[in-house]
# Entry
Amino acid sequence: MGYDASFEGRIELEPPMESGKWQRLLDPHPTYGAITSGVRKILDPIIMPILSKDRDTIVAIEPGPGGCSPRAMHSALEHFVHFVMLFSLDDGRYCRFSGGFNGWGELGEEYQVTIGDTDPIKVEEIPAND
# Structure
């Protein structure tokens, strides 16, 4: 799991997160894409926010444009889930996640990353069909 993989997909947030929280707390973090223009990032973000049409809320997240290792994706999502849960509980609501990311490694291996209720972050390698 140390190789880079390219990921695609989307994880929806229900209810959506206020974009101000992302902007204040996650815009400066190198792992996450910025909502505000002009925020410098040294590395490609691992997770990108998807804004609502009115730009008031984050409705989903998608993988960043550059690849990363499945372990890095797992860590980024784990941090994100803890962050969202912490602030969702402050607002008196529980956030649910639906969807996932599919990934393809440099050597042809396939990965699926999902967020569930019992196993918060699950990264599994999909066996090749020979």
Q: What stands out?
A: The mean pLDDT is 85. The first strand starts at residue 5 and ends at 18. Strands lie at 5-18, 47-51, 57-63, 96-105, 110-115, 121-126.
